[in-house]
Amino acid sequence: MLASFSLSLSMTHLLELPQRMQFDRQLWVRVTVFENVYKLFGSVGAAFEITAILTAIVLAFLVRKRGSTFYWTLGGAIFLMLAFMSWIMFVAPMNAEFAKWLTNPIPLDWRQYRDQWEYAHAINALIKIIGLSLLVISVLVETPKKRAIHSEQ
Question: Cβ distance 86 to 94 under 8 Å?
């Protein structure tokens, strides 16, 4: 659930990307920096992200002796960690830069910052899709086939 909550926030960025890339400087900066429409993504989203990673690691530990289930779970945990590391490396520095824009002039090359912020969020969503998919697969390979057949009847 936590991984899906974290992914839902990233999907917001991914789905908004085409429209937001058409915003002019004034609109993009106003919505993103001054109005900070993503304000809760930093607090609530961070909680989802960190707890999703931690619970995936705990889950991998708990299923460590279950063969392929372990590897699928470990893969999911690794991809969730990769998404977080990607955010730290590519999004967080842009957030720090945008905070400066509140009291300083907006740089002429603002598009460079916007592009990194927008595309890093999109890539982050794709990484989380893979992570969540691997976690779902880990559950599916654990589901007994005989039980699945009976549930269809």
Answer: no
What token pair was written down for 99?
């905070």
Q: Which amino acid is at 43?
A: S
Please state whether the predicted TM-score (pTM) of the whole model is above 0.85: yes
Instruction: For 7-32, write each residue's pLDDT tens digit.
Output: 999 999 999 999 999 999 999 999 99
Q: How far apart are CA 28 and CA 117, in angstroms?
A: 12
What tens digit of pLDDT does each residue of 60-89 get?
A: 999 999 999 999 999 999 999 999 999 999
Give the C-alpha separation, 131 to 23, whole Å.
31
What string of H, E and C letters represents the secondary structure of 22-58? CCCHHHHHHHHHHCCCCHHHHHHHHHHHHHHHHHHHH
Of the candidates 123, 151, 135, the residue with the CA atom closest to the CA atom of residue 56? 135
> What separation in angstroms does the CA of 118 have from each of 13, 75, 114?
7, 26, 6
